Amino acid sequence: MPRRRFACSLAVLVAVAALCPASASESFPFGSELMLDAAPMRGSKRIPMLEIEENGAASIDLWCTSLRAQATVADATIAIVPGDMPQAQCEPERQARDADLLAALTQVTGWRRSGEVVELSGPTPLRFRLPTN
Known about the structure:
It is a single chain. By secondary structure, this protein is α+β, with helices and mostly antiparallel strands. It has one domain: Lipocalin (Beta Barrel). Helix content is 25%, strand content 32%. The radius of gyration is 19 Å and the shape is globular. The model is unreliable at 2-24 (pLDDT under 50).
C-alpha cells in the first residue's frame, strides 16, 4: 500500500510539473520578432512588433510607423532607447497610439519570459508573443 501511494503521489507531482508554466529563467529571445498581444486597429491588419538583437540593436514596428532603437537586456532588466521617430503618414488616432506605445516602451525596466510570452514591466506593462508558425 505505501508503495502504491508513493507511485500515485509521484505521478501527480510529475503531471503538475508538466502543466506549470516555464520558469522565469528562460533566456530572452534575441533575434526573434515579438508581436504585441493586441488586436489590430480597425481597418488594418498591422500589429506592433519588437525585435532585439544580441548586440542591442532593436527595431520597433508601431501601429503606423517603424523606427530603430537601442536596447540593453540583462538578467531580468531591460531598457529601450528609441531613435528618431519618422514623420507618420497616417490618421491621428494611429499616431497617438504610436506615441503611447513608444512612451510605454521607453519606460520598461524589467522583463520575464514564460514559454512563448514575453512580458515587459514598467508603469504600463506590455505583453508580447513569439510567432508560433
